[in-house]
TrEMBL record:
This is FAD-dependent oxidoreductase. Pfam families: NAD_binding_8 (PF13450). Residues 260-281 are annotated as: Disordered. InterPro entries: FAD/NAD-bd_sf, TAT_signal.
Amino acid sequence: MNQIISRRDFFDGIAVSALVSPAAARVTHGAPGHAETRQNAAYRPGGFTVRGDTSEALSVPHALRDGRFWIHADTPEPTGERYDLVVAGGGRSGISAAAEWLRRDPGAAVLVLDNHDETGGQARRDALRRRTREGRPDGVMCDAETFGTDTLVRLSAPGWADAAPIAERARRDLRMLHADPPDWFPRLSAEEKQERLAALTYSEFLLRVCGVHPDVERFCRTMPCREWAYDTRAFGAIDAWASGYPGFGGLGLDRDKPSRLNSPSVRQEWPANAGGERVAAPPDDRARLRMSSPVVFARDGARAATVGYFDGHQVMTVEAGSVILACWSAVIPYLVPELPDDQRRALRSAVRVPLLHATVRVRDARAWRRLGVRRVRWTGAYWGFCEFEPPATVHLLATPCRSELGPGAGAAAGRRELVRTPYGRLEHTIRDQLARLLGPAGFDPAADIEAITVDRWGHANAPEYCRPWHPFYPDGPFPSDLARRRFGRIAIAGSDSAPVGRADAAAAAALRAVEELAR
């Protein structure tokens, strides 16, 4: 009973778990808002760091969601501070909103609040996404999780399909998809073919339309994970066609322009439309930043809005002439319960997709040079993609989404599993997979790994309307139009309000929110 319990621990359920035995805490580990913080907080190996959506960062939002926060919180205490603008969210959208407000009004008083301990949010993830999509994988690890054995297939090698540990018929099907696929819909017009593709996932296209061996679908399953954070069981066939995936060459579709049925990101990234992403404004030193200070409510008023945030011990309040909520849309109904019911439902429908990014500092690059590949896609292991960055850094991505359930339900299920995943397992899987990949080239994880940093984003990629999951796309009406509706002095930003998964969507949403409040 000598363990120190912080105020924040009450909101993450640790006050309850502290009363049980260590063995019981281990058994109940990972239950939402319960022993997850306690167990992971005890995990402190040398050279292993977790950032992003840590237990500490999520404790208050989860307590609000579960109805536990106000049971333990004291009466809010006014700070006496008044700002022209208060922004909830210190990520790309929140920082852009603050910078744009100060550009229009250089003398304004601006406060940015965030539940994380640093600004920038997922800008690191966005930077990795930009880098990894510049080059396709040059290797595929057909792993034991999928095929019962680990076999590295070097895609630059002649006849690479023959090296895959798959059935002989699957090899023939794989070669056919890449080299000479037929017209699967010979009697349909181009528009009808696109409609047919829009009704299918890529996995369904491979299995139902192409009739390939199941090993082919398993070999291709993780292809979209590094960009979309879910696999081909959730990735639409219409976007797979636009992304150059194998199997569509015989359809005769126009490659000069995207289909109207392609998702917004695919359409915007089409070569003819590519004009570079909108760059978010850097943090403005005139804005006051308060990290580890999650917003717990925002109330509109006759003369000013009131914003409450938790400073780790007490709920503090400030007054604001305007408020921009640049946080996850799904949390906004808990911050502004006065919103109309239809708007609250629309906000809750924005389910973000979880993602993990690991940065591993290795002693040297000799094993990678001997291996002869730089970017490797795994077919079923926990970390689905790894890339070597000279001189001595390895990046890994993991996508916990349960893709077989679809991007929305799968993201929610994957996030629940991620909360239950001990930090120790994250470290173990990184070391294990690098040993399996690089061990034959002389890599020893115990000696050759110097440090590991994991960015854990339970709420990573913004949701994006796409076929076949959103039949109202592209004609509308869209839930996001209702979700981002201004509420008095409160405007809603964030990439969820676009909703587009591209990194620049957050900056564009911030500019829109500032413009709404300026009218």
